[in-house]
Amino acid sequence: MKIAESNDNSEKLLSKLLFNQVAFQLPQQVQEEATIAQILTYRSPIYKQLLYYSFCILTCGIGYLFARWNLSLKLALLYSQCIDIEKATHLVITSLENEKELIKIGLKKMQINKSEKQSKSFEYRLYTYFYEDECFKAIETPFQTLTHEEIINNYSKGVESPEEIASQYGYNNTTIPDKSTGKILIDEILTPFYLFQIFSVCLWSIEEYYEYAIVIFLTSIISILVQLRETKQNFAKLRQMTSQDSVENVFRGQNDIVIENKQIIVNKTINNNKQKLSSKAIVPGDLIEVRDDWTVPCDCILLNGSCIINESMLTGESIPIIKNPIQFNKFIYQPNEDSKSITLFAGTKCLEARHPEKGQIPVLALAVQTGFSTIKGQLVRSILYPKPTTFSFYKDSLSFIAVLAMMSLVGFSLTIKDQIDELKEDNTTIFQMIINSLDLITITVPPALPTCLSIGVSFALARLSKKSIYCISPNKVNVAGKITIMCFDKTGTLTEDGLDLYGVRSIGYNHKKSKICFQDLIIDVNELPTPNVQFSMNLTGQNVYGQTKLQPTQLILEIMASCHGLAKVNGQLIGDPLEVKMFEATNFELDDLHNEVFKDNDRIQILKRFDFSSTLQRMSVIVQRNDKLRVHVKGSPEKLRELCHPTTVPRSFHKILEHYSKMGFRVLACGSKVIDSECNRDKAECNLTFLGFLIMQNKLKPVTRSIIQTLQDAMIRTIMVTGDNVLTAISVARQCNLVQPNQRIFLGDIAEEKLDGKNHITWKDFDMNDKVLNPENLSPELDIKDDSGDEFETPELFGQQEQQYEQQMEIVIEENEKVANSQHYENSKSMNLKKSKYQSYKEQEEQLKAENLDHLIDDQDPWKTDQPFVVAISGKAFQLLLNQIDTNPKARRLFGLMLEKAQIFARMKPEQKAQLITHLQKISKKALCGMCGDGANDCGALKAADVGISLSDAEASIAAPFTSKIQNISCVVKLLREGRASLVTSFQCFKYMALYSMIQFGTVTLLYFTLSNMSSLEYFYIDLFIIIPLAGTMGQTKAYKKLTQFQPGSNLISFPVLLSVIGQTLIQIGFQTFVYFYMKNQSWYRSGVDIHKDIGDVDDHLEMEICYENTILFLYANFQYVFQCVAFSIGKPFRREFYTNIYFTLWIILAMLFNSYIFLIEKSGFQDIFMLMFEYESTKNADLNTEIDRQWMYWLYGIMIINLITTIIFEKYIVPFTTRFYRGKKRKLLKRYKYSQNPYLNDQLQQK
């Protein structure tokens, strides 16, 4: 075995701009989170090391901290660019998300052909690269470049030199290196937040605010310990999930395995050479025994026998599947595509291993990927390196905090003159001035801010968990509040998992019309003719059914009984639900150990099975019955039609197929032929006789229609993304009202005939093929009229029994509508589409304007759903456009238009689903895309989406931030409502914390004019008994009952938020300033400086806190903290009214009553606790004897009421009115310079 060489699909990326950029080659199946965009080489000269460490020491470690937080600064201080790779010591690797990481270059020693080779190497996100031929190449096994035949010939006997292989690829170890408690603590403590906490505690200790400092210190310690505990627990869970150390039976260098007649023959003597090894000792190329109830230790290829595997850990599909041995052919090994049926993936469970001589000959599997190169390793990688959050709220919050910090300098500069004057009189010191300036920073950036911001998310998560919706990524809750596009898988998500056999539609010969035609629908399979009935059909002088002269219905029954991949485990049939239903309908029994099915004395022997292939869109079997060999094939109708003899296919093939597909059925075609002897797949699956259709019924889940309607009413674009065929996808879309009844559907698919030798896409009306879309702009070339009332008449094609059944289906649909809020649905269904959607949005917007709530919604127009048509597209057409978007301007524009108009994506492969999500996210600033699915095909899309919701209980939900235990899409509406409420709460809390800081900033700044400050107990009271309880309980306000048509804003740096925060700051500080000077003009007022000069303790900053200024501003500001919280308490349209939050309302009332009590009651007893000054008696100067006038306090209380009213009026009326005016002007300006947000509609191509 050798290191994988470069291949045509790999790219060597070389820079033309940076001289220190190095070439690299990515792994073949590299994950997006591990994709490298650029590698730069650096070295660390001695002189730079000396300068760097000197700088860190001289700055008391501050330089180190900034270099730790900023890689660019660290590179500038410690490293130099290096063009010679041999002299380079470090690499700077840039990811696709533009994340940069500094990695040290190491040396890797490898043994190749018994000689040692050494080269530079590095590890990046669990991939290892080595330097060769002036390029860093990923180390990967060669299997994915080999054919099945080459793998069997070269690797089916195991490895002879495991140490040599291990030196290249490593052993099978997926254990994540443990992270010590000390390192976790250092990483936690050396973050800006906790360092700021430490700085604040030290500062307050210097100021002798011991009580407050101790409380904040203990809070920080508890927070660190909780974070440490959670980190350790999560790390332990991840290590437990990833590590595996089991005892395996391994066979190395075997001569007991031979290849004869393109078959792997395992001799019984192989058991004599069995080795028991730890699973961590396995290397690629090892042969491992497959056992019952066995966890697969690495990715393997099954060599012999068969096994039943539960892949729920990997895919989320709880249905076990059968794995068959590798076949001797020239197919390239593709484990994620056609070779999936022969691959055992790491971490999956083998329920049962099967072999005709089980117990004597072991079932063997070939290890092809080990360690983090396995599928399980990819799951681990996706957890360790998640996609970075680009949500604007989090970025804006950091900018906002920086602005608040700058405000402290502004405040200090206002008081600097007065403090200098007092410094000259020796009433203060330079040290105290510095302490005061630093103290303002801790006021403007409150230490509790990060905790308070997470409160809304925490309460939303708690409410979601009560609704059986669980989250592993809390930051995604707020993102859910901005979702504007929601994509759904079909099977198991919109529709039920199980399928029912609706009936069989076989072909027959119409003697009157002398042609092949479809027979009447057979709903009861028991009515299919028995094998004893003779039947003859002669076409062009030949009996196309062979010598058996069986009717097509008899052969269809045989296909239903034998053409499947079912197995029995503990007496239960397992496999594809469709095949289970199909087989159960035949009343045959399965004996999978002997590969036969039987019913009474009728036995069908399954000689060979060609498993279903997504590329071939079919499966087939070779069976023997009554000494006759036949090939049976079932699969996609479109594909079977190509494989069947044209004379056996009725002219009404497409009519019948479209009819059932429109009704929401899943249709499979059947074909067969007689053969003389066993043959390969290519020879078996050709020149078939078409037999008819198997029609499977796929029912909608009861809530699907109502939830889709709710989302559409909320102006959320709904899209179906499915691997099923286009016809079925369209029919289900119509059933669930994803497509409105009066909307035409235009299908984009690859044209049957090529244009200038190239494939191209046609856009035809699904119902009327004569109508097409203009490919330049995807607009109809003919006028579209509403023909939703037209019916599909098929009096000659469909029997009376079936027409009666269709009428019954309509009744069933009506009953389902009643369950799913039928009155609402029928009313909206009958409304004109434009009026019911866009006009309704405008009406609701006007209602919000009347209530002065329109400033709370996002300033973007909703998705336009008023077009009389929608677009559906097939996976092949999607891929054709996708391949051309970087080279063909017309294809790029067409791709952009398709993304805006398409609502149905069918026949989509798993990777195409993920690609679709990625491109949908780019078409607009408002395009935050969600994905809801339940199966293996959805994992990539769930991970790519801004918000992924998995309906699976298994570990596949690792790929999705949300998991719903309720297996329907009702979770989507619940999540979006909670997400919007959480986002609004985060905004409200942030604004409140900003105003709390500004109010306190104003208070302290005014006190600095008199060399005073607030006392430790006052800070303690404000933070622990006003701010934290109010900020904590405001998040308990529940989400609004209805999912409205509007999106909440997500930008902190936006006009309404800035206007509100700045305006309220000016109001509160303005009133404080007025109160301050109003107080100074009173006859009873005496300056704190004069009082403490009289006492003789003016140099004691703690005693200076006891003064009239402190008393009045403290008592007054306490009210501002409370009613400012009320002003920011947002209710509809995203949350319920604040008074429905009992705890929040009670605390508001209690805080106002308590503040009023200590404000108005002279002898309340709390004046002494807070050390408030209401009177002063001097022993030296009688002129200083004074007492606060109680009548003036009542006037001050009235000023507070005016302050409250002003605050409410500004927030309720001034902010909405000004925002409305600003947005109107902004929209008029943008109309002059209108441009498309969709990058695919630009003329310039993106360069790779």
UniProtKB/TrEMBL annotation:
Lipid bilayer topology: Multi-pass membrane protein
Alphabetical list of PROSITE patterns matching this protein: ATPASE_E1_E2, COF_2
Cellular location(s): Membrane
Domain P5B-type ATPase N-terminal as annotated: residue spans: 38-115
Broad enzyme group: translocase
Domain P-type ATPase A: 265-382
GO molecular function: ATP binding; ATP hydrolysis activity; ATPase-coupled monoatomic cation transmembrane transporter activity; metal ion binding; P-type transmembrane transporter activity
Record flagged with keyword ATP-binding: yes
Parts of the chain that traverse the membrane: 50-67, 992-1011, 1018-1035, 1055-1078, 1142-1161, 1194-1215
GO CC terms of this entry: membrane
EC annotation from Swiss-Prot or TrEMBL: 7.2.2.-
Record carries keyword Phosphoprotein: yes
A Pfam family: Cation_ATPase
Primary localization class, coarse: membrane
Keywords of this entry: ATP-binding, Magnesium, Membrane, Metal-binding, Nucleotide-binding, Phosphoprotein, Translocase, Transmembrane, Transmembrane helix
Coiled-coil regions listed in the entry: none
Reactions the enzyme catalyzes: ATP + H2O = ADP + phosphate + H(+)
Family of the protein in this entry: Belongs to the cation transport ATPase (P-type) (TC 3.A.3) family. Type V subfamily.
NCBIfam families noted in UniProt: ATPase_P-type, P-ATPase-V
Name recorded for this polypeptide: Cation-transporting ATPase
Organism of origin: Paramecium primaurelia
Upper lineage: Eukaryota, Sar, Alveolata, Ciliophora, Intramacronucleata
